[in-house]
Design brief:
β1 and β2 form a beta hairpin. The chain is mainly α.
């Protein structure tokens, strides 16, 4: 089975101009037409002056021919159409990416606005039906009244003893009222048929309105769900981004971090090396100081020993105790020995 533009399959597909990018494209085309018109107005004096010059006229004709070729060539037009559609689709994608929830809310607001218009039109339609019914009732009463008048005129005509002029007047009134009643009955028939059709349409629209309200409510609930989902996902994604930055890190920050660690390692090695060198030098100094201290101690012990030996009395010496005192008087055989040897 072939697919035609009027088939249900093709009717269910949206063309480029029916999609969101088509709306953006229409706006862009309007702006382009306005800009082209403004540019043409600005170039109009030049075009008029160019038309007066043969050379300029030839250039102008050549430009027009080139423009017509570009406009009429199928490949050029197809390429321009594809570029235009791709550009509009890209711009629409940028707008949708910026505020998708806002676009959905605007769509819901537009649907609610159309629902309000539908309610208003339903009210007007119901008012029209009521007006038709009132007119039908009025025509019905007026037709009944006209028929009553025609019936009364017919009764007067049936009476005897009427003058010819009265008979003519009653006959005229009877015919007029009958025609008026027939006309009203015919009008009522047409109005009743119209009222019935409008009533059927009104009942159908009431059901459609309930379905439309359900659609709006369902889409509104869906938008609310998507809004909550997006908020939750954005919060989770922010945590994910933070974790990703921690695990992956910023390349520049990672480089600075590595350079800082390298600097700290080098600086710590430098300080440890200096402390080890100083420790070796200090150990050497302390060893020398210990040796010198030991040597000095040995020399002092030696000198002290010699001093003590000199203080001990020799066999040739005597002890004389001074009279009246308990202090011994140490004398030696020769007085020439004294403490001068201790400092030699």
């Amino acid at each position: 089975m072939g697919t035609t533009p009027d088939s249900p399959v093709m009717q269910g597909l949206k063309t480029f101009w029916q999609r969101p990018e088509g709306t953006v494209g229409k706006i862009a085309l309007v702006l382009a037409v306005v800009a082209g018109g403004y540019g043409f107005i600005q170039l109009l004096p030049f075009l008029i002056a160019a038309a007066t010059d043969a050379l300029h006229l030839g250039i102008l004709i050549g430009g027009i021919l080139v423009g017509l070729f570009v406009l009429t060539d199928h490949r050029v037009r197809t390429l321009a159409k594809l570029i235009f559609q791709s550009t509009m689709r890209y711009l629409t994608g940028l707008f949708i990416e910026l505020d998708p929830i806002g676009i959905l809310k605007n769509y819901i607001a537009e649907m609610k606005k159309n629902l309000g218009v539908m309610d208003e039109q339903l009210g007007n339609l119901n008012g029209s039906i009521r007006t038709l019914q009132n007119q039908i009732d009025t025509n019905q009463k007026e037709a009944e009244h006209s028929l009553a008048l025609a019936n009364q005129a017919d009764k007067r005509l049936a009476a005897t003893g009427l003058a010819p002029l009265d008979q003519q007047q009653f006959m005229s009134a009877k015919i007029t009222n009958q025609r008026h009643a027939a006309s009203l009955i015919s009008i009522n028939k047409s109005l009743t048929d119209l009222r019935n059709k409008l009533q059927i349409l009104y009942d159908q629209l009431i059901r459609w309105r309930a379905t439309a309200e359900f659609q709006v409510t369902d889409k509104e609930n869906r938008v609310s769900e998507e809004e909550m989902r997006r908020k939750a996902l954005k919060k989770a994604y922010s945590v994910f981004q933070a974790a990703k930055k921690i695990f992956r890190g910023d390349p520049v920050a990672n480089q600075i971090y590595d350079q800082t660690l390298e600097y700290l390692a080098n600086d710590a090695g430098q300080m440890l090396g200096e402390m080890e060198d100083f420790n070796r030098l200090a150990n050497k100094l302390m060893t020398n100081m210990d040796l010198e201290t030991g040597a000095i101690n040995d020399e002092a012990v030696k000198q002290l020993t010699e001093f003590q030996q000199k203080l001990v009395p020799s066999p040739g010496t005597g002890v004389i105790q001074a009279a009246g005192t308990g202090t011994p008087d140490v004398t030696t055989a020769g007085r020439k020995d004294d403490y001068s040897d201790l400092i030699r």
